[in-house]
Design a protein that fits this description.
There is one protein chain. This protein is α/β, with parallel strands linked by helices and about 300 residues long. The protein folds into two domains: about 5-230, Alpha-Beta Complex (Spore Coat Polysaccharide Biosynthesis Protein SpsA, Chain A); about 230-300, no CATH class. The protein is about 40% helix and about 20% strand. The protein has ten helices and eight strands. It has an eight-stranded mixed sheet, sandwiched between helices. The chain is globular. The N and C termini lie far apart (about 50 Å).
Length: about 300
């Protein structure tokens, strides 16, 4: 029986980067029993994205097409992808990520073997320049990338948790959207909206409503980390935004006052012993706390 798979790439004004993503997708090893295509969702781009994608599609052996989504925001783009295809499975990859050759095969195998409604694969950092010394592995989760060494040194079950699931590398059964709904379009950082966490909200919704979700460690993509994201200011904004998103989404949170106190003390202790990585980690946890309670106030 032939399985239909659509690989969806939402993109916004990244004509210079999306070509590499397209090249990695076009080079994927696709099993003989799988009918695959690629759908690029041009999310209100104003650069040369359309020309780059259309030019690449003409020479691609993998069936590839582009649709224009005028509403800016990752949720609008991802939901448009769901509406545009009738495939059995929809895999999403970010427009600044590159898939390993067996990515789709490994993700599909994991989902079919375990009968998962959704699964996230391994997201490894692709540094645009050497990261600063303070940006160690414990902070990579703030950039939505994994520490492969830590994951592989622990029992496989330890990776099966919500904070380990990133939408730069995620696959869904099509039926999951019918059962659990699509991405919430009131969440997601776009323009002046600082509220992130639309992907985590959907993952949590699937799990809370009895769906199945898992981690696929051999389904690997490499996510570009540009220099501008390797700053404490960027990480603070991201942590604050994620806290706000958690509040607006109504997700369970550990953002109680004791968390603020605990992280404040640990931040000071790490700074005193000369450990900037851990000091910044606890500072970001404090930023998440303030974002969450700012979101709670606005939600009222």
């Amino acid at each position: 029986m032939t399985v239909k798979l659509t690989i969806a790439i939402p993109t916004h004004n990244r004509a210079a980067l999306v070509r590499d993503t397209l090249a990695s997708v076009a080079s994927l090893a696709i099993p003989a029993a799988v009918e695959a295509d690629c759908l690029v969702i041009d999310n209100a781009s104003t650069d040369d994205t359309a020309a780059v994608v259309d030019d690449f599609a003409r020479g691609s052996a993998l069936a590839m097409r582009r649709v224009f989504e005028p509403h800016p925001g990752s949720s609008f783009a991802r939901n448009r992808a769901v509406d545009e295809t009738a495939s059995d499975y929809i895999f999403f990859i970010d427009d600044d990520a590159m898939a390993e050759r067996d990515w789709a095969t490994e993700l599909l195998d994991e989902m079919r073997r375990r009968d998962l409604d959704a699964a996230c694969g391994m997201v490894l950092p692709r540094w645009s320049s050497p990261p600063p010394k303070w940006l160690g592995p414990s902070l990579w989760v703030k950039l939505a990338v994994h520490d492969r060494r830590a994951i592989e040194s622990q029992p496989a079950s330890s990776a099966e948790r919500l904070d380990n699931y990133f939408s730069a590398n995620v696959g869904f059964k099509r039926s999951a959207f019918a059962r659990f709904g699509k991405f919430r379009e009131d969440l997601g950082v776009v323009g002046g909206n600082p509220i992130s966490g639309e992907d985590t909200e959907l993952f949590a919704r699937i799990l809370e409503r009895g769906g199945t979700m898992g981690f696929a460690p051999r389904a690997i993509v490499h996510h570009l980390i540009p220099r501008e994201r390797m700053t404490t200011a960027y990480l603070r904004r991201k942590s604050f935004a994620f806290g706000m998103g958690t509040a607006f989404a109504g997700l369970r949170s550990h953002n109680h006052f004791d968390k603020l106190v605990r992280n404040g003390v640990r931040m000071a202790a790490a700074a005193m012993r000369g450990d900037p990585e851990r000091a910044i980690y606890h500072e970001l946890e404090c930023a998440n706390f303030f974002g969450y309670w700012r979101g709670r106030l606005l939600a009222r």
